Structures are given as C-alpha cells and as structure tokens.
C-alpha cells in the first residue's frame, strides 16, 4: 500500500488526485450516513477515517467540511466531527415542494414565452459530456443549473427565493451520491424535459416537471421501509 506521506506528496504535485481522494471519501461517508451505517451522534475521527482509506488527513478534512455543508455532520471546535441525524422524510418532503415550484415555473415560462432554450441546451450538452466521463459531481452541478435557469426565467421572486431556500445544490449532491444512479439516464431525463418544453404542450411539460422531482423523492431502500 502507498504510504500516506507519498500520497500527500503526489496530491500536492497533482491537485486532481487530492480532489479525487476527498470526493471518494465524501461519497462513501454520505452513503454510510444515508444507509444508517454511521449512526447519529457517532464521532468521525480524522485519523481513523484516513487510515481506512490509506491516505493523509488533508483529504479527509476536506470531505468532512463538505459533509458539514450538506448538513450531514456537525464539526464542533475542540471536540471533533459528529454525524447528524439524517431525516429521510425531510429530504422526501423537499422534493415534493420542489416539484410544485418547478411545475409552476414551467407553466409560467411557457405561458409568457420565456423559455431559456439556449441555456438549457448548453446545460444538457455539458451534462451529457459529464455523464460520458462518469463525472458525478459535474452531472449534479449541471442538473442544478438546468433547473435554476427555468426558475429564474419564470420571473417570480417568491418562487425563486423558496427554491433557493431548499438548498438545492446540497440536496442534489446528497441524492445523487446516495442513489448512485445511471448518469446517462439523468442526462436523458433532462433532455426529455427540454423536449417537452420545446413541444409547447403546457400540461404535458408541467406533468413531466412534477414527475421528474417526484422520482427523486425516493431513496434506494424506501420500498423496504414504507
């Protein structure tokens, strides 16, 4: 096994390697928290996590900071990092609300003729490229941008503020990492949303926008607990 010292040196020489280690640790911890393998209140010790992954503490520290942003851990000064309760129902409810917001935004942009087609096409193209490269984070980012373009084009500040208050980036990241979905399927889903907007059929486009979010409200093991 490569020593942590050598990995750290290589990470400094190659920032992409350091980023890959951090993201791999982050994604693994997300799945463990969502699956309940890491229990609420459990302390995540940097040295132990680093030893598990055979790396230095630097990428572990980066991963934990991102998990704090996602609301999955709490970093307490001089005490350590602790797993927070992952409330599956809260995530599910956020997608139900998001479905209503995006359905309404879709109706508005079609009724006022303000669909941002150029931006949406660019988003889908970048998403497809990221999917081919198996870049989960980029797919998630482009997905957020696609939906943000529709929300902003609707021209309704209350819808936009409510949508932003759902912390879309963090929730999208958690959902994608927890589900480990087919990235090309995600890109195809957004192409279908774009096609529905292009068709001009308001009711069909709204129904698809709503169903798109509902599909993401269920995490992998929900069927075994409902």
UniProtKB/TrEMBL annotation:
Keywords: DNA-binding, Transcription, Transcription regulation
Protein name: GntR family transcriptional regulator
Signal peptide location: none
Record Gene3D superfamilies: GntR ligand-binding domain-like (1.20.120.530), Winged helix-like DNA-binding domain superfamily/Winged helix DNA-binding domain (1.10.10.10)
Keyword Membrane: no
Keyword ATP-binding in record: no
InterPro entries: GntR_C (IPR011711), TF_FadR/GntR_C (IPR008920), Tscrpt_reg_HTH_GntR (IPR000524), WH-like_DNA-bd_sf (IPR036388), WH_DNA-bd_sf (IPR036390)
Limits of the HTH gntR-type domain: 19-86
SMART domains for this protein: FCD, HTH_GNTR
Matching SUPFAM superfamilies: GntR ligand-binding domain-like, Winged helix' DNA-binding domain
Top-level division of the source organism's lineage: Bacteria
């Amino acid at each position: 096994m490569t020593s942590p010292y050598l990995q750290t040196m290589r990470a400094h020489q190659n920032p992409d390697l350091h980023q890959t280690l951090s993201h791999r640790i982050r994604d693994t911890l997300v799945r463990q928290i969502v699956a309940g393998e890491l229990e609420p209140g459990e302390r995540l010790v940097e040295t132990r996590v680093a030893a598990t992954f055979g790396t230095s503490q630097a990428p572990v520290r980066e991963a934990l900071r991102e998990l704090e942003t996602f609301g999955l851990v709490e970093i307490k000064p001089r005490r350590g990092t602790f797993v927070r309760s992952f409330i599956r129902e809260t995530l599910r409810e956020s997608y139900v609300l998001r479905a209503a917001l995006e359905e309404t935004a879709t109706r508005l942009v079609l009724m006022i003729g303000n669909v941002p087609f150029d931006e949406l096409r660019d988003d889908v193209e970048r998403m497809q490229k990221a999917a081919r490269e198996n870049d989960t984070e980029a797919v998630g980012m482009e997905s957020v941008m696609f939906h943000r373009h529709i929300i902003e084009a609707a021209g309704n500040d209350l819808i936009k503020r409510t949508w932003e208050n759902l912390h879309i980036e963090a929730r999208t990241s958690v959902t994608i990492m927890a589900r480990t979905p087919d990235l090309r399927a995600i890109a195809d889903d957004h192409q279908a949303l774009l096609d529905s907007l292009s068709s001009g059929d308001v009711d069909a486009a709204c129904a698809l926008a709503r169903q798109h979010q509902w599909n993401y409200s269920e995490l992998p093991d929900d069927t075994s607990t409902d």
